[in-house]
Write a structure and sequence with these properties.
The chain has 270 residues and is of the alpha/beta class. The chain has a single domain, classed as Glutamate synthase, alpha subunit, C-terminal domain (Pectate Lyase C-like). The chain has helices spanning 2-6, 8-13, 32-42, 202-219, 222-229, 231-235, 244-258, 263-269, and strands at residues 17-23, 52-60, 72-80, 89-96, 109-111, 121-126, 129-130, 139-145, 157-163, 177-183, 195-198, 238-243. It has a ten-stranded mixed beta sheet with strand order 1-2-3-4-6-8-9-10-12-11. Helix 4 crosses helix 5 (222-229). The protein is globular, with a radius of gyration of 19 Å.
Length: 270
Amino acid sequence: NELIAICQPAITKGEPVRAQLTIRNVNRTVGTMLGSEVTRKYGGEGLPEGTIDLTFVGSAGQSFGAFLPKGVTLRLEGDANDYVGKGLSGGNLVVRPHREATFVAEEQIIAGNVIGYGATNGKIFLRGRAGERFCVRNSGAIAVVEGVGDHALEYMTGGSVVILGSTGRNLGAGMSGGVAYVLDLDPTKVNPEMIDLDPLTSTDADELASIIEQHFEATESGVAKLLLADWITALGRFTKVMPKDYKRVLAVMQKATEQGLDPIAAVMGA
């Protein structure tokens, strides 16, 4: 495997590795075997953040960066097919248009369907729109995208998602955990069965600002740049999407903590 050979200094000695490679849409599960080698040697802890940082130019096949562990960052300048970041396990993924592209990034699809499926940890930054079923079954990753298709956040149980563009229908169906911040949300697109739509708290605002700053740093997103330039105004355009039961649990834990009680015991007794 070419990536494993390139990254041997990181795998064997923990030394930083940087490289740029071309990629084609016949190249599937790029980074997965590399991630397996890292996990085999270092276990669930992975490598220190940023040890391996690879940039690809072109169109990625399915499952780019699937199951990527901590310490590995894959950057893609071009576009990607379905399942980017499937099972993401601590790694970082950045997808942005080619630097010579002339189109408006936030108006174009940059990655396909089912991005971040079953992710448990890590970060995904997409400069552009994604297809359907974005972050289905996400349980701990942070993801930013500039628009999504139908059924986003379906069965999500944890993590934080920021959507800087329009959504398709059935947003948040079966969502039981985690939080999403959506720009200019159309409430008619939301599945209201299990989730509430709320304004942001000051803590939410701080978290959101940090995530959008990271998105801009990683992708040079024009949307992120405009929002950060007038942040006070931008904040009023965001809606917080959170499961009703999850919100109740967090409230019980917060109250118990303030009273000096065991928050877990408080939840179990609620």
